[in-house]
């Protein structure tokens, strides 16, 4: 009976995941490439961007699953407003400029502060190590270590190297499948 109950719960979770809309926020420091990533997802092209004041929001559908994706401006003066986007967020995408070694400690501080917020307790984290086309870019492993991702015991996370200009490193379907797997296999299913 226990196994049957678990199977029913898992199936319900999968169906709910597939047919409901999910809220995603894209955060990271200014110039990390967040807006470029959002529109690369949508248009499959590198669009010309300017610094985001406030946010951009787009709905992205992957088969029947819809994601409401908020791209939030990363300038220092805007970071205090990030928390107004946290409510009901299921997936946090943190974009890192992999060439920006100097500000990685600032990113780390922002990430850990953000994940301490009660509205993000159930959110999964996808870190995109962007700008891999640039010389001297840090690897995904280096970024993972500098951000101390392994200390994120309360959150499911995954780090992925990518290049927003070419779209290399994140095939949209694949990325959301990863989000689905980390969110449901590690949290919702196992801890039910
Ligand atoms: N070489 C390279 N440049 C990139 C890449 N992704 C983004 N850029 C460039 O980085 C700059 C900043 O990109 P945006 O997408 O506007 O950055 P953002 O994170 O949205 O910045 P804010 O809106 O200020 O928070 C632009 O000139 C992009 O063309 C990448 O993968 N490689
Ligand atoms: Mg932007």
UniProtKB/TrEMBL annotation:
Positions contributing to Mg(2+) binding: 35, 52
UniProt cross-references to InterPro entries, sorted A to Z: P-loop_NTPase, Small_GTP-bd, Small_GTPase_ARF, Small_GTPase_ARF/SAR
Gene Ontology MF term list: GTP binding; GTPase activity; metal ion binding
Entry keyword set: GTP-binding, Magnesium, Metal-binding, Nucleotide-binding, Signal
A Pfam entry, by short name: Arf
SUPFAM superfamilies: P-loop containing nucleoside triphosphate hydrolases
Residue sites binding GTP per the record: 28-35, 74, 130-133
PROSITE patterns, per the entry: ARF, RAB
NCBIfam families reported in the protein's UniProt record: small_GTP (TIGR00231)
Function: GTPase that recruits MYO1E to MHC class II-containing vesicles via the effector protein ARL14EP and hence controls the movement of these vesicles along the actin cytoskeleton in dendritic cells.
Family to which the UniProt record says this protein belongs: Belongs to the small GTPase superfamily. Arf family.
Self-association state and partner proteins as the record states: Interacts with ARL14EP.
PANTHER family per UniProt: ADP RIBOSYLATION FACTOR-RELATED
Name of this protein: ADP-ribosylation factor-like protein 14
Organism, as annotated: Sinocyclocheilus anshuiensis
Annotated gene: LOC107689047
């Amino acid at each position: 009976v226990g196994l049957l109950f678990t199977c029913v719960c898992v199936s319900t979770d999968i169906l709910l995941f597939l047919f409901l809309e999910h809220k995603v926020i894209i955060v990271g420091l200014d110039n990390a490439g967040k807006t470029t990533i959002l529109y690369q997802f949508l248009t499959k092209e590198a669009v010309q961007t300017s610094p985001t004041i406030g946010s951009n929001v787009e709905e992205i559908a992957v088969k029947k699953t819809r994601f409401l994706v908020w791209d939030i401006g990363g300038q220092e003066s805007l970071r205090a407003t990030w928390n107004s986007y946290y409510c009901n967020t299921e997936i946090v995408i943190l974009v890192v400029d992999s060439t920006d070694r100097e500000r990685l400690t600032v990113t780390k501080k922002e990430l850990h502060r953000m994940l301490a917020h009660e509205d993000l307790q159930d959110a999964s984290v996808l870190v995109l190590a962007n700008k891999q086309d640039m010389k001297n870019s840090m690897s995904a492993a280096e970024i993972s270590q500098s951000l101390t991702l392994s200390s994120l015991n309360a959150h499911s996370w995954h780090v992925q190297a990518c290049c927003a200009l070419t779209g290399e490193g994140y095939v949209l379907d694949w990325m959301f499948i990863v989000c689905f797997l980390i969110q449901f296999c590690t949290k919702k299913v196992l801890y039910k």
